[in-house]
Amino acid sequence: MQSSALDQSQVIVDSHQDTGHHGHPDHRMFGIFVFLISDSMTFLGLFAAFLIYRSISPVWPPEGTPEMELLVPIINTVILVSSSFVMHQGQAALKKNDVAGLQKWFALTALMGIAFLCGQGYEYFHAEFGLTTNLFTSCFFAVTGFHGLHVTCGVLLILAVLWRSRTEGHYSSSSHFGVEAAEIYWHFVDVIWLVLFILVYLL
Questions:
Q1: What's the CATH class of domain 27-202?
Q2: What is the three-class DSSP state of 172?
Q3: CA nearest neighbour of 91 among 187, 156, 14, 189
Q4: For the chain, which terminal residue's Cβ has fewer other Cβ atoms within 10 angstroms, N or C?
Q5: How far apart are CA 77 and CA 177, in angstroms?
Q6: 138 with 65: CB under 8 angstroms?
């Protein structure tokens, strides 16, 4: 009788795990995608404004705008694109229940994100124009600054995952929502940067 009761209890627990968090359907990942879609609309608006200003301006960038340096943005692009592959290694390690591997790869990703932000700060500090120099420079700081804010949020998410991974059993091959959400957000930031880089620096 006692064994039967234990088996029934285990079935209930397993059922709760299958249906979601605390017995409710788990819509957290759906919520992440809804957030990213809505966030992408903001970027889409900024990119559309940038392209409209470019199309209606006789000269773009306006005459007198100092030439954009490409070395730092290219290095930043390599860092950010590479960091997505590095981060994926962390999730791959977790699928093998290798929490130490997760921590190693996520810590490296956070460092790469910080390096990106340092590169962006260097570019801002050495720019030969300001926010109000002309329409192009205003768009430049608005778009790159908004993206930089997202990179900062992504780094904080990664650090949060690292902090919570210190608790034994918090993340595993069967419990990894925080890890997966952070990785999806980071890939989103990466893709946005590639579009931004082409529009702002190359076109």
A1: mainly alpha
A2: strand
A3: 187
A4: N
A5: 27
A6: no
Residue located via tokens 């340096």: 69
Rounded to an integer, what distance in angstroms lies between the CA atom of residue 30 and that of residue 10? 28
| R_g of the chain computed on alpha carbons | 22
175, β-bridge pairs = 172
Write the pLDDT tens digit of every residue in 71-118: 999 999 999 999 999 999 999 999 999 999 999 999 999 999 999 999
Q: What is the DSSP letter of 173?
A: T
The DSSP secondary structure of 14-65, one letter per residue, reads HHHHHH-GGGS---HHHHHHHHHHHHHHHHHHHHHHHHHHHHHSSSSSPTTP
Domain boundaries defined on the chain: 27-202
What totals of helices (H) and strands (E) does the chain contain, helices first?
6, 0
Q: At what angle do helices 135-164 and 99-126 cross, to 10 degrees?
A: 160
